[in-house]
Each structure stands twice: as structure tokens, then as C-alpha cells.
């Protein structure tokens, strides 16, 4: 199973949706709260070029945000990525 990392904030509804989808699929993930972890937002921006959360990585692949995650799932591409 591929490692999943998700940059979030506690107040972001899209973060909660993305995490819920991952939980439904039985996927554990490494969550980085960019408001609570010093330097995490800067690291996320440097890795992704984006300032919004969530930002999701599956393995070394930057998936994007919540809508991107759901789009991958809708076209059947998310499960194979998660499986590695």
C-alpha cells in the first residue's frame, strides 16, 4: 500500500471530505496540520506550488486537492494508486 500524506487545517471542510474518503477506503494517512506545525505551510507550498489545503500525496505523486482526489476515485484510478 502506498504511503499517503495530506496537508490540512482543522477548519477546512474539504480536508474533512478528503480524509473521510481515505478512511472509507481503509487507508491510513500521515496528516500534517499546516496551522499547528511550524514551517509546514511553507514546505507544502514549496512541494506543490499551491497555497490551499488539502494537498494530497500518494507515494511521491502529488494528487492535488479534495476535488482531484474525488475525480481520481470517480474514474477508477484512485484504488490502483493506493494499492501501489
UniProtKB/TrEMBL annotation:
Gene3D superfamilies per record: Glutaredoxin
Span of domain Glutaredoxin: 4-63
GO CC, alphabetical: cytoplasm
Superkingdom, natural source: Bacteria
Keyword check for Transport: yes
CDD domains the UniProt entry points to: GRX_GRXb_1_3_like (cd03418)
UniProt keyword terms in alphabetical order: Cytoplasm, Disulfide bond, Electron transport, Redox-active center, Transport
GO MF terms held by the record: glutathione disulfide oxidoreductase activity
Annotated GO biological process: cell redox homeostasis; cellular response to oxidative stress
Annotated NCBIfam families: GRX_bact
Protein family (similarity comment): Belongs to the glutaredoxin family.
Function field: Has a glutathione-disulfide oxidoreductase activity in the presence of NADPH and glutathione reductase. Reduces low molecular weight disulfides and proteins.
Protein name per its UniProtKB record: Glutaredoxin
Provenance organism: Pyruvatibacter mobilis
Amino acid at each position: 500500500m502506498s504511503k499517503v500524506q495530506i496537508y490540512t487545517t482543522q477548519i477546512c471542510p474539504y480536508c474533512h471530505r478528503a480524509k473521510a474518503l481515505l478512511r472509507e477506503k481503509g487507508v491510513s494517512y500521515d496528516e500534517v496540520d499546516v496551522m499547528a506545525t511550524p514551517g509546514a505551510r511553507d514546505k507544502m507550498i514549496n512541494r506543490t506550488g499551491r497555497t490551499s489545503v488539502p494537498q494530497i500525496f500518494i507515494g511521491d505523486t502529488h494528487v492535488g486537492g479534495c476535488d482531484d482526489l474525488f475525480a481520481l476515485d470517480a474514474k477508477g484510478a484512485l484504488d490502483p494508486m493506493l494499492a501501489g
